[in-house]
Amino acid sequence: MKELLNISKELYGSKLVLSKIKKIEYKNYDNAPSVKLVLFGTEKYIINGRPYSLSENRFLVVDNNSQIELNMDAEKDVKGVCIFPSKRLLNDVAITRVSSTESLLDQPFQDYNQRLVHSLFSFTDTRTGKFLNQNIPRVLSACKQRKQINLDHFYVQLAECLVDDQLELQGNLKNIASVKKSTQEELFRRVTTAKDFIVDNYTQNILLDDLAQVALLSKYHFNRTFKALFQLSPYQYLLQLRLDKAKELLRQDYSYNEVSSRVGFSDGKNLRKTLKRMESSSN
């Protein structure tokens, strides 16, 4: 079964498609950039030869002129959302970010090509992810109620988030000691896979060996690249994630001992001590 519903095609030709699919074999070059997310199930993509497994806790960004393969044979309907922000809109937003006011006045119609690094991204660590988390439920609710939808403002805000995330990523990629941009981007994808592993398993005992193996890199290369991209070591990132989760639970009146077992600390005393140390160092 395949069901596709295009609920919007408005600003600059941007569009949003809802899908409900059990079986599909698709292979093509897509002329438009896209943002893909799954509401239920898993979608298996191959983007320019690289496999991606897209589930509910990540979203996938794909640049225009990418070769996309999607093969599915599921028992239950896999529900997804695919947003095609206009390339022209992305370029228009990007040029306001990288050009001075004087340049925009002197050359209002200058060309600019904003590339998108294709990869899986977290809903919590990116502007785009937070925007999607907040706004996709509203769009789906309006669609379910058969309300008239004008998504021009949605597309503009999404384009702004995408461009800002990509420009920040491009800045971080420059910290990686490689001349080739393709190598920098591949290292980002590999290290991000390990970073996602930390997010999904932060309550467990995670070793640097485990992360390096997930990233398919040596321990030294992985640790160095992680620091270059995220300005934290893998251990610092794991610790910060655990403490952030602990603070959320403590605000819900859980005890330190209860929280420690839920976020990967040995005991409540150790958790309390670490929280105090981190708070004092930030003051």
Blueprint (SSEs and pairs):
Layout: E1 2-9, E2 15-30, E3 34-40, E4 43-47, E5 50-54, E6 58-62, E7 66-84, H1 87-98, H2 101-106, E8 119-122, H3 127-144, H4 152-173, H5 181-200, H6 208-215, H7 219-230, H8 234-250, H9 256-263, H10 268-282
Antiparallel strand pairs: 1-2, 2-7, 3-6, 3-7, 4-5, 4-7, 6-8
Helix pairs in contact: 1-4, 3-4, 5-6, 5-7, 6-7, 8-9, 9-10
Give a written overview of the molecule.
It is a single chain. This protein is α+β, with helices and mostly antiparallel strands. The protein folds into 2 domains: 172 residues, Jelly Rolls (Sandwich), CATH 2.60.120.10; 102 residues, Homeodomain-like (Arc Repressor Mutant, subunit A, Orthogonal Bundle). The protein is built from 10 helices and 8 strands. Strands 1, 2, 3, 4, 5, 6, 7 and 8 form an 8-stranded antiparallel beta sheet that branches. β1 and β2 form a beta hairpin. α9 crosses α10. The longest helix has 22 residues. It is globular, with a radius of gyration of 21 Å. The mean pLDDT is 89.
Largest sheet: 8 strands, antiparallel
- SS-derived structural category: alpha+beta
Would you count the extended β strands for me? Answer: 8
* Radius of gyration over C-alpha positions, nearest whole angstrom: 21 Å
- CATH homolog superfamily of the largest domain: Jelly Rolls
Number of domains: 2
Strand content: 15-25%
- Give the fraction of residues assigned to helices: 40-55%
CATH fold call of the largest domain: Jelly Rolls
| CATH class term of the largest domain | Mainly Beta
Q: What would the principal axes of the Cα set say about the shape?
A: globular
The secondary-structure element order is: EEEEEEEHHEHHHHHHHH
Low-confidence stretches: none
Cα end-to-end separation: 57 Å
CATH architectural arrangement of the largest domain: Sandwich
